[in-house]
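Example record

Each entry pairs one chain with its bound ligand, 2-acetamido-2-deoxy-beta-D-glucopyranose.
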Amino acid sequence: MHFSILGLLGASLAWTASATPIVQPELQSRATNFNNPVLWQDHPDLDVFRVGDVFYYSSSTFAFSPGAPVLKSYDLVNWTPVSHSVPRLDFASKYNLNSATDRAYVKGIWASSLQYRKSDDTFYWIGCIEGKTYVYTSTNSGAGANNGEVNNWNWSLRATLNKCYYDCGLFFDDNDTVYVAYGNTDIQVAQLSSDARSEVRSQSVYKGSVTIEGSRMYKVNGNYYIFVTRPANEEWVLKASSPFGPYTQRVLVASISGPLSNAGFAHQGGIVGTKDNKWYYMGFMDAYPGGRIPVSAPITWGSDGFPVLTKVNNGWGQTYPTPVETSKTVPGPEREDSFTSSSLSHEWEWNHNPDTSKFTVPASGGGIQLSTATVTNDLFTARNTLTHRILGPKSHGTFRFDISKMADGDRAGAALFRDVAAYIGIYKEGSSARIVMVNNLSLNSDWSTKSTGTIAATGPTLPSGTAEVWLRVQADITPAFSGGATRTTTFLYSVDGGNSWTQLGGGFGMTNTWQFFTGYRFAAFNHATKSLGGSVVLKSFALKKW
Ligand SMILES: *[C@@H]1O[C@H](CO)[C@@H](O)[C@H](O)[C@H]1NC(C)=O
Ligand SMILES: *[C@@H]1O[C@H](CO)[C@@H](O)[C@H](O)[C@H]1NC(C)=O
Ligand SMILES: *[C@@H]1O[C@H](CO)[C@@H](O)[C@H](O)[C@H]1NC(C)=O
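Structure tokens for the complex follow.
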């Protein structure tokens, strides 16, 4: 999870970009080949596995809530979020975004692990948060009896261990013994009690000569494997005939070129086998400003028992044969959400834990009502900002707001959210409402607020009685991680129901730095600067490529 600066320098110096055209249909077709990245969204620190016909994928989410999304796929290529392993960040009160000095940016859910256990039909999530390890389980899943399909996700905290399993990988052995591989540089294996509530033993199994971390533990053909990253350039494989070693090491990939230009090297991933025993390695690429996005490649097993990545032109392929031919499918990421269900879809995550008394999603539809939850002039301290991943390389988020119940002093709108942020929004002053574009919101390197933003452009003052305003954030997250280019996002509004659009302000230059970890997101916000009581309704949100 921690990047080594040296590794990053290596990444930017050593990698020669190839100008591969990117073709990424929103839902990849049932063609015989798939394209990398498999899902152009920020889903880092992945853990991937299969239950029956269904592949599952877990990723890290820092201070976004709920945390640790669970994605589902039938072909290892098309993914959709179906759950979150951590329903609420209950680790400390700062996860509630209490004040400008009591918040949890960049803390929370780092590299963690999700696996399914056959013996009790339960999904287990495990992760270290600020010194302690938390185990969440979803019991009675039904997946074992139903070819991998889950009847009912039912996550709850099972255990808190007073020890950090840093960057851990969970593994259930054939005889159901529970192991966790973890650590930074000094890689350890712990055996847990069979209920995963306590540690039985733990020992060092491999000491790296350089920083290694991000463990994933497996057993394939009778051998034990621990995959680790040498951040941010390489993936190593440790192999042993017993869980506690001794382990021998080989490099799976080191500074491998492709499949995306101006991104880092694919690393920190895991492996998964299909039903017909074809194996794949999935890692992520640092693809800022968009975050860290997953890429996949087949592996074969060498006669020495170590995996070998299938390369194309000595690099990571932009396309490979589709892992699983199946007619089963999942919804693609380009969709409109009109909030017609009483719970939010798993596409959404709040910035920190929400104040649940300040929003409602009526089952009857009509949109999500966002009441102001904080009095502040600082978006980074306002509760109940609702975020959505951007789809790369270029997509826009269209937010349809009803602003008729905004109160004097309220600020609501559509943000491009990160540590350096901008938005288009409505400032309500007295009985008048004007549209503004605000940029230059930023955090310091200790994640305190540096700037609450500057009004860069002012649009029309809306006639009193205006109910609907449509806002659009049009983002370009084409990777610019090592290329130095600045990608720009533009902000637009429509006051005629989305027929005609007007850009407000200039293009906003996005930061390509990695230190905040999470890439840019679309976000809806509503906060007060004078007093609580006002509200907006987000009637719909649409994600679409451009
Ligand atoms: C949900 O999980 C809890 C805690 O593990 C368990 O007691 C309960 O039976 C589960 N409910 C269902 C419907 O699976
Ligand atoms: C499970 O398998 C491991 C690896 O072979 C072994 O060390 C351990 O003793 C076994 N546990 C039980 C309960 O059989
Ligand atoms: C951005 O915010 C900083 C900190 O408040 C301020 O010093 C700077 O002048 C602002 N820049 C612009 C272009 O408004």
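Confidence is low (pLDDT under 50) at residues 1-26.
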